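Protein data:
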Amino acid sequence: MKVLGLTGGIGMGKSTVARMLCDHGCTVIDTDLLARQLVEPGSTALADIIEVFGPGLCDGAGRLRRAEMARLVFSDVAARRRLEGILHPRIRQLWQQQVAESRMAGREAAVVVIPLLFETGAEGEFDAVVCVACTPASQRQRCLARGWTPEQLEARLDAQWPIAQKIARSNYVVWSEGCLDTTIEQVRRILRQLNLHSLSASVRIETEKLVS
């Protein structure tokens, strides 16, 4: 089984490319989803977060106040590193377990979507790394369309490697400008180059915005 890492900048199209890979038959493991599952009420990860940052980060129902957590960690590097120390090892353990399950099931390819793939030193876990990228102008437009302020965007960008650095370290790049057909063809070309020929067959992808 081929194991691929999928990364890229904020708002550059990771989710769209992940859906294309899923539609082509890849098992897709989304670490953002795993991170959300880890902090469900009653979880040990949430208990550790409360112990470090205080009970004020939970609402009346015991759920993590995500907006407040984001405000804190994206304004304080030390706080962000403490949160990453709680979550990142658990996230890696979960996606490694799901990759192992996919291998046991005889799947041809698994894709792990990790925004901070290089930042967490995970590249050695993969047969190849695919980076999704676009121009800074498109990235900014897409992120602001989500309702983020320019200050929120800059804080998140500061927490990640520059996209040029990610591109340089990746095996493949999907350039997510232009129409979806162009993006789909890039995905198929990568699958063919990885000798995943059965996964590069034509499938129908619904038109949607290129955002992740």
About this structure: Residues 24 and 72 are 39 Å apart (CA to CA). The chain has one domain: 2-41+91-199. The first helix runs from residue 14 to 23.
